[in-house]
Amino acid sequence: MRPSGRDLSEMRPVSIETGITKHAEGSCLIKVGDTHVLCTATIDERVPPFIKGSGLGWVTAEYGMLPRSTTSRMRREAAMGKQGGRTVEIQRLIGRALRAGVDRSALGERQITIDCDVIQADGGTRCASITGGWVALKLAVNKLMKARMITSDPLVDPVAAVSCGLYAGQPVLDLDYPEDSEAGVDGNFILTGSKRLIEVQMSAEGATYSREQMNQLLDLAEKGVSELVEIQKAAVNA
């Protein structure tokens, strides 16, 4: 029934390769099917002015898609002179999601910036960015702990994200682009490793959905995030 031939509750193949870049304090390449995102983490011993002197750390994110990450070339946003609304919304989402799993007091007064660059897009780029972004963040935090710049791990729980939706009337896990473009309902679910909800984005296109269907999608999301968290843990412990 699905274009890919996957079962309704089956994720695309997921892999996370760490240590991708030489200079970043944490880096990984996450592949979720044909969606590939490079995630890097940069530690800065300064914080934004609005939290300076508070003793709290900060995690923020930037997101972008390379010109040929899609089927036709997109103009670089730098060439247009400003970021698009979608880009701004997604990078704020990534930052919010990752901060939800951080004890900012334990991080200390420093900032970690997560850069997510989409190399190839086939649906679910924001979810892949959050999932890979947490791995890059964890690797950067590990360096801080190894250098004894912090005394306890500020990452209280893994954070991962997955898309779910109603495709041809059926609830499906981890939509690729052919499904996402035809889905009657699609949503992005961001959860912690302990299945606490961080954010849910759901919308219907030309239809409506029931509370029961929403619960079915949430059940699928919990299953998908549980699988992603195991892959995250294996990546940072490799």
UniProtKB/TrEMBL annotation:
GO biological process, one term: rRNA 3'-end processing
Enzyme Commission number, as recorded: 2.7.7.56
Domain Exoribonuclease phosphorolytic, chain residue ranges per copy: 10-140, 157-224
MF annotations from Gene Ontology: 3'-5'-RNA exonuclease activity; tRNA binding; tRNA nucleotidyltransferase activity
Catalytic reaction annotation: tRNA(n+1) + phosphate = tRNA(n) + a ribonucleoside 5'-diphosphate
Keyword terms: Nucleotidyltransferase, RNA-binding, rRNA processing, Transferase, tRNA processing, tRNA-binding
Record's subunit section: Homohexameric ring arranged as a trimer of dimers.
Protein name: Ribonuclease PH
